[in-house]
Write a structure and sequence with these properties.
Blueprint: H1 10-31, H2 39-58, H3 62-75, H4 77-95, H5 98-109, H6 112-130, H7 133-151, H8 155-172, H9 177-186, H10 190-217, H11 225-238, H12 247-257, H13 262-280, H14 282-289, H15 295-308, H16 318-323, H17 333-351, H18 354-363, H19 369-386, H20 392-407, H21 412-426, H22 434-443, H23 447-450, H24 455-469, H25 479-493
Helix pairs in contact: 1-2, 1-18, 2-17, 3-17, 4-13, 4-15, 5-7, 5-11, 6-7, 6-8, 6-10, 7-8, 7-22, 8-10, 8-21, 9-20, 9-21, 10-21, 10-24, 12-13, 13-15, 14-15, 17-22, 18-19, 19-20, 19-21, 19-24, 20-21, 21-24
């Protein structure tokens, strides 16, 4: 930062956010669910331009602002690559029969009255085992959504149950990156962090289960048995259906459980899906490729088409054909466009000191432990909405509040729990956040359709704030520990 850079005032810091919120609201009114297919991207770019103009006024150069935006985009590159691989995986798992097999058996085992509860529990188990909400949603989540759709369960409720379960594991699993990141930012250790999270997470999950259990009894599936039978027949005629195909997702979950990074694990899953398709679905391979000659050429063309582009599996029922269609990597490009624009806005806001000014202003009103934790939770949500990135919503507030928590005698697990309860889980509620954009794209359900049914995600920050104000399970340093830390600080300074 150059010496002539002026600190922004609060009005200057708020102007880009006010303009962004106004444009996003206008887009929702005019374009509704289609707002994320271009209009919101332009709104984010306009917000970034406004932030840059204010940055110029504060003394920042274009080189500094551009560097900040590029750095922000770079932080999202892992998510972008994972999105592309998920697109390829969804394509090969469809043509291989993996997803149709999940749907086929799921339709025969589930009933609309307990579908939402079962979907949430299944996603809880899978995400806890894998540590990845994205992998859970992209695999079993996609199959569960298809099952719920055929059963007549509202799309928003289906997606809400899937996401609620998926983010439970993302928050609690020791394999999750955010579960490791939060205690690292707070200065705590992983397993103390997980144990301490249970106090707020378990009650939140139980309430979520109760809500989905009650909602299930109010679902009126209508006369949908014919639709279920039609789908079963369509899949029987198009795919080889067998439990042996479950070996593909089991292999992926096994790799993730062995702490293989999500990107290579999902890539292996996509390749396995393509290989299995060549052996298990020869008729479908020929149909997709349009090649009647050499089977190796047909298989190569079909698998690459499934990975990269749109695949339409034709049946006698148009709605079933749509359900069994995928768009591969191509289908993820709009989401990636949204992520890039969001990162530009977040980067410009951060490098010009606008986000820091807003959070510093909020901190002046913090007095009690309850208000400190509530402010931290609100800051995490704020960063999810403005910086548009789950990791920034954990890292920046973690750095900002760590000293304040310690100075007030609060152990680091208080901060790390708050970061997870509010930063990790609320990211999926914003359509321009990397998580919200990704899950909406993978499931094909707009964020505006599902967010109000993500009960686990909505209740988690409220639960952590409730615990803080009620002084429930708030761990503090003893006077002796505080004295020892003060001595250590003096030694480090010297």
């Amino acid at each position: 930062m150059q010496k002539n850079n002026r600190t922004p005032n609060l009005i200057e810091a708020l102007i880009p956010i006010i303009i962004l919120i106004a444009l996003l609201s206008l887009n929702v009114i005019i374009y509704k669910d289609s707002a994320t297919y271009g209009p919101n991207q332009i709104a984010l770019i306009v917000g970034a331009v406004v932030a840059a103009l204010i940055g110029f006024k504060l003394g920042y150069t274009w080189e500094q602002i551009q560097k900040g935006m590029v750095k922000s985009i770079n932080s999202a590159m892992s998510a972008i690559l994972i999105l592309l691989i998920i697109g390829a995986l969804s394509g090969t798992w469809m043509i291989s029969g993996v997803v149709p097999t999940m749907i086929y058996y799921g339709l025969q085992l589930m009933h609309p009255s307990y579908f939402l509860l079962a979907a949430c529990i299944i996603c809880c188990i899978v995400s806890l085992a894998t540590g990845s909400s994205w992998s859970t949603v992209a695999t079993v989540g996609v199959a569960l959504l298809a099952i719920g759709t055929v059963m007549g369960v509202p799309l928003g409720m289906c997606a809400g149950a899937i996401i609620s379960g998926a983010y439970f594991g993302d928050k609690m699993s020791p394999l999750s990156d955010t579960t490791n990141l939060a205690p690292a930012m707070a200065g705590g250790d992983l397993f103390t962090h997980i144990r301490y999270m249970m106090y707020t997470t378990i009650p939140t999950l139980i309430i979520t289960f109760i809500i989905f259990g009650i909602l299930g009894f109010y679902i009126n599936p209508g006369n949908n048995q014919q639709g279920v039978n039609d789908l079963l027949k369509a899949m029987d005629s198009k795919f080889y259906i067998s439990p042996i195909l479950f070996l593909v997702p089991l292999a992926v979950f096994g790799l993730i459980a062995l702490k293989v990074d999500a990107l290579p694990a999902l890539f292996v899953g996509a390749v396995l899906g393509g290989v299995v398709a060549c052996f298990a679905q020869p008729q479908l391979i020929k149909e997709i490729s349009g090649t009647t000659g050499n089977y190796a050429t047909a298989a190569y063309k079909a698998v690459l088409q499934a990975m990269t582009g749109e695949v339409k599996i034709q049946t006698n029922n148009e709605s079933i054909s749509k359900l069994l269609s995928t768009r591969g990597m191509f289908g993820m490009l709009n989401t990636i466009w949204l992520v890039l624009c969001a990162m530009c806005f977040g980067g410009a806001m951060e490098v010009c000191g606008l986000l820091k000014k807003i959070t510093q202003t909020v901190m002046r009103k913090v007095e009690s432990t309850g208000s400190l934790i509530a402010t931290t939770a609100g800051t995490c949500v704020f960063f999810n909405a403005t910086a548009s990135d789950q990791y920034l919503a954990i890292v920046v507030p973690g750095r900002m509040f760590a000293k304040e928590f310690r100075d007030r005698g609060l152990k680091p697990e208080n901060l790390s729990r708050t970061l997870e309860d509010s930063g990790t889980v609320t990211s999926v509620l914003f359509p321009w956040n990397t998580c919200g954009a990704a899950q909406a794209s993978v499931l094909g359900v707009a964020t505006g359709t599902y967010w109000m049914y993500c009960f686990f995600n909505l209740l988690s920050p409220l639960m952590t704030v409730f615990y803080a104000y009620m002084n429930i399970k708030i761990k503090r340093f003893t006077p002796e520990e505080m004295e020892e830390m003060a001595k250590k600080d003096v030694l480090e300074k010297n």
